[in-house]
Structure formats: C-alpha cells, structure tokens
C-alpha cells in the first residue's frame, strides 16, 4: 500500500489493520521494511506497521529533500494518515536516528513508548565524545573519507561498511558479500544512501534525550555493536524509565539475523509497559 505525503512522494507501507495496540518499525540505513519481516509475520497481539523511508525500498526516490528532518516529517504524516495514537515506535540504526529527530521536532506526540536498537545519539566522535560508532574512533574526518569513497565507488564503500559493522565478514566470501550488496543497492538510490549517511552523522541528539518522557527500551548487540557498552550506560542515565536488553554474541545486524529472538524480547518488554 502507499500513502502520498505532503511533498507528493509515495511512501510504501504494510499494515496488519487491526484494532490492537499499534507499533511502527523504522528500518536501517541502506535497507528497507524487510528488516522487520519476522516481526511483521510473527508477532501477535499488536497492529504492526512497516514502511520504506523515502529514497529506499519501494517508496519514491527523490533527488532532493533527503535528510532526517524530512524522514521525521514522513513519520508524523504516516501516523496522522493512519490515525494512530498510544503508539510504540521501534527505531533500528538509522531508524533510531529518525526517531530521535521526530522527538526533537514533535516531542512524544502520539507516542506511548519507544524502542532504540543499537543507535547512539551522536554518531561521530571527538575529543569530548567517544560514544559514537566504530567504538569511539569514527570522527568527522572519517565521515568525509566515507562520503568521498561513496561518491567514488559505492559498492566498495558499502563493502567496507559491511566489514566495519561485522568484522567477522572479512573471513567470508567477498564475492558472496558483493552479491548481497548488489541486492541492497538495487532497491535504493545512491543519492538517498549518501545524503542520509551525511544527515545521520551530522546530527547531535544528546540535548533532546531529556525530552523523552515515555518508557524506553534499549536493545544493543554484544560484542558486535558499532558502539561501546558505555553508550548504553549513557542512554540509561539520560533517559528516564529505561529498560535494556543486550543481544549476546550478536552484531549490529541482530534485528535481522536474530529476528525470532528480537521479536520475542520485544513482545516480552512491551507486555511490561
């Protein structure tokens, strides 16, 4: 199904169309609604909505208006289009950044609870902040290098990102990984990928954490998170009323690779809210 946003772009979504408690799932960078296929098919007792951010998957792929602000606006318009309230939003990786941006602009409008999956409030690191990605080593200079690499050779840049997300992949077949990359890139636009990478890395959401006044669940991977364990402790300290679950022996891709466990733990935590 599609809804048309205020800019005229068609946004693809799927909805279980029940009168049960609603959950919206926000997918990761360079991905699509398929990140949450297992949850959508198997979670019981909830109205589940998955969709493709503009620029990704089956949604329109504009050559302008691509930033976290625009994706947060799309989220608000989808919520209003579907007349949702008392809502839980699950933000995975970039989806978590979209959720941060939504809260920065709209507060916790129509939200009941949120789930942040393996995402830090500030991606890049500096002398005062070491809780960004790549275990505190990814700086603004590294961002510029990564952008230059994407403009020069997107597939190689993507492969490098795969290795950064999951170092164990360096021991896998590079040919097989490139086939997976081809599948990812086929459904997305290079402009969307690069522009959103810049937008994600540009933002600093630390000041808005105090605005999160609803129950919050933190799902993080160990030892394969792109952040350090201190990032989780920081979020627990800054956001009131948090619960945390660590996916042991997992990588940043646990939402997809451990869909069954992720779905089970999500149901378990939501039942306690």
Automatic annotation (TrEMBL):
Q: MF terms per GO, please? A: hydrolase activity
Q: Which InterPro entries match?
A: AB_hydrolase_1 (IPR000073), AB_hydrolase_fold (IPR029058), AB_hydrolase_sf (IPR050266)
User: Record's PANTHER family?
Assistant: AB HYDROLASE SUPERFAMILY PROTEIN YCLE (PTHR43798:SF31), MONOACYLGLYCEROL LIPASE (PTHR43798)
Domain AB hydrolase-1 residue range list:
22-255
Native source species? Peptostreptococcus equinus
List the keywords (alphabetical): Hydrolase
Q: Which SUPFAM superfamilies match?
A: alpha/beta-Hydrolases (SSF53474)
What this protein is called in its record is Alpha/beta hydrolase
